[in-house]
Design a protein that fits this description.
The chain is mainly alpha-helical. It folds into 2 domains: 2-104, Orthogonal Bundle (DNA polymerase, domain 1); 132-348, Intergrase catalytic core (hpI Integrase, Chain A, Orthogonal Bundle), CATH 1.10.443. Strand 2 and strand 3 form a beta hairpin. The radius of gyration is 22 Å and the shape is globular. 34% of the residues are buried. The two termini are 25 Å apart. 53% of the residues lie in helices and 4% in strands. The protein is built from 16 helices and 3 strands. The chain has a 3-stranded antiparallel sheet.
């Protein structure tokens, strides 16, 4: 906290106020991920302001914020790509929240961001989704004669079987895996919500192999209890996990790009194609609601596990015989996949 204050203070009064803003959000029990997201986006804005000698909140006017919004639109990453609309929306939203807080706290006379419109978010479907054959090919790529290969196979299987987010995988604890119940506990997922999701037999078998043959020899004391650890013996950084997964997808040479979120897309798509009810997939993914779902229906883990076993191609060690597929509304399916596509922008823009 002290280091954060010193670093933000280098941006002048803007940075000092930002430190107070973030501290207030901690006091209101915002998730660490949300606070980190706010800080990162505010730093990006402050860097832009610093280049223009803007260091005081009173110097920020509506035209200044509109200039920043245009700058985000025309900005290009190190790879020469524009920011996605979702990323532009997130960066600007953090700035707008900051100025709204200062105005409410009487730190500025008026809110210059009050009439700034956020970019309209695209409603798009996932760019790429893997077929079952492509998934199996990717899963076969880790060299399981090596410890890192066993670990990578277990991670890929977990992503595919459960559809959990990258951030949820890196935080997963050893005791969050419940082999007897065939479930996985996701703690403090998006929105600071816990949830229990099914996990297939094959994924569990690879996790067990990893826990017995690899992890005990790689972990560095004190053991924090994180399930998947890097070659350094501690928890993965999210971008490191992205690099690993992306590497296997590229090595598969299937003409598709993506990383952890690609498995999330794929899991949802394949279960939809197999006839899973939209509500069950919604519960697995940890979505609080969908626009097509007027009332959020709580689903018991027992029923959810039954649906997972019936519709997920990788739920069993052996081949699953195809059964009757319940009808799924195309509109509902498109809504779910569009929501998933919007989520994936964090990986697309992570190396800005």
């Amino acid at each position: 906290m002290a280091r954060q204050l010193r670093e933000l203070a280098s941006y002048g009064t803007l940075g000092t106020r930002a430190a107070e803003f973030l501290d207030m959000r901690r006091a209101k029990h915002f998730s660490p991920g949300t606070i980190e997201w706010n800080e990162g986006n505010l730093r990006a804005f402050f860097n832009w302001c610093e280049e223009r000698s803007l260091r005081n909140p009173t110097e920020i006017t509506r035209p200044i914020l509109e200039r920043y919004q245009r700058w985000l639109f025309y900005y290009r990453t190190k790879l020469g790509k524009p920011l996605t609309i979702a990323s532009q929306h997130k960066r600007l939203a953090a700035v707008l929240a900051f100025f709204k807080w200062m105005a409410r706290s009487n730190m500025i006379l008026f809110n210059p961001a009050s009439e700034i419109d956020l970019p309209r978010l695209d409603r798009r479907l996932p760019r790429d989704v893997l077929t079952i054959a492509e998934v199996e090919h990717i899963l076969s790529l880790p060299d399981v004669t090596k410890p890192s290969g066993i670990r990578d196979r277990a991670m890929l299987e977990t992503l595919y079987s459960t559809g959990i987010r990258r951030s949820e995988l890196v935080r997963l604890g050893i005791y969050d895996v419940q082999p007897e119940a065939g479930t996985l506990m996701v703690r403090l997922g998006k929105g600071r919500k816990d949830r229990v999701v099914p996990i297939g037999e094959r994924a569990l078998s690879w996790i067990e192999k990893y826990l017995v043959e690899v992890r005990p020899h790689e972990v560095v004391e004190p053991d924090e209890g994180v399930l998947f650890i890097s070659h350094l013996g501690n928890a993965f950084m999210p971008h490191s996990l992205t690099d690993i997964v992306r590497g296997y997808i590229e090595a598969a040479k299937i003409g598709k790009v993506g990383s952890c979120h690609l498995f999330r897309h794929t899991m949802a798509t394949l279960m939809l194609e197999s006839g899973a009810d939209i509500r069950f997939i919604q519960a697995m993914l940890g979505h609080a609601s969908l626009e097509t779902t007027s009332i959020y229906t709580l689903v018991s883990i027992k029923k959810l596990k039954e649906v997972h076993e019936l519709t997920h191609p990788g739920a069993h060690l052996g081949r699953r015989e195809s059964g009757q597929k319940p009808a799924v509304s195309e509109k509902d399916a498109e809504e779910l996949l569009s929501t998933l596509a919007a989520e994936s922008s964090e990986e697309e823009d992570e190396r800005v």
